[in-house]
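To the wet lab folks,

You asked to see what we're planning to order before we commit. Fair enough. Below is the target structure as tokens, and below that is the sequence we designed to fit it. If anything looks off to you, flag it before the synthesis order goes out.
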């Protein structure tokens, strides 16, 4: 067995993952806005949102392949109490072994996902942000603690309501302006929330204050 085959097998088993970047910062979006967290961004995404602000994460190739032990060790070293798995699209991978290691170290584990594939692993918080290009995999809505819909145009409000009907009653509902259209859509979101108070607004606070 050659090195490439071993690497492929270890990724499929969830023992190693392609990691674009990882860093300790402040959560800037959604329910946990303002909380310190260690972000782990996986490489690889085939959802293809045209307004994506991390398109460098799309290719599966070219990212360091890192063992889950090292990922957890770096998180522990940061002193973070929350680890956030994001992407790219992290549910492309088997995340059960990684989450088991985090659980063993008593680190809260969150995920941000479009839900395009089946969700594996054990999670303290699931942020589901479904995209029109690749609709969510069956069953993920029931596991969502937070539904975050990116608002780019008026049609996204209808998309938001469609998915709000599928999540549990305790799921937090957020509308978030697409960064490049924020000046236009923030007033529209505010008007919508005034008439539909089950929703809250999520702003990308990290971009306003200039942190990762």
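Sequence we intend to order:
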């Amino acid at each position: 067995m050659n090195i490439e085959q071993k690497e492929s097998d270890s990724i499929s088993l969830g023992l190693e993952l392609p990691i674009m970047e990882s860093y300790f910062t402040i959560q800037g979006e959604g329910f946990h806005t303002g909380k310190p967290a260690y972000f782990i961004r996986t490489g690889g995404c085939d959802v293809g949102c045209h307004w994506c602000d991390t398109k460098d994460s799309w290719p599966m190739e070219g990212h360091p392949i890192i063992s889950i032990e090292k990922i957890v060790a770096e998180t522990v070293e940061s002193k973070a109490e929350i680890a956030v798995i994001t992407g790219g699209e992290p549910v492309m991978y088997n995340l059960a072994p990684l989450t088991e290691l985090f659980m063993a170290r008593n680190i809260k584990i969150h995920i941000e996902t479009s839900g395009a594939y089946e969700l594996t692993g054990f999670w303290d918080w699931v942020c589901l942000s479904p995209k029109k290009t690749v609709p969510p995999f069956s069953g993920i809505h029931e596991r969502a603690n937070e539904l975050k819909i990116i608002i780019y145009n008026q049609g996204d409000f209808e998309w938001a309501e469609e998915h709000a009907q599928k999540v549990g009653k305790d799921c937090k509902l957020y509308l978030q302006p697409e960064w490049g259209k924020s000046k236009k859509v923030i007033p529209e979101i505010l008007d919508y929330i005034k008439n539909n108070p089950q929703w809250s607004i999520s702003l990308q606070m990290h971009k306003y204050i200039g942190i990762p």
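Structural context that might help your review: The mean pLDDT is 95. The beta strands are 16-26, 36-42, 65-67, 82-86, 108-113, 125-128, 146-151, 172-177, 200-201.

Thanks,
Computational group
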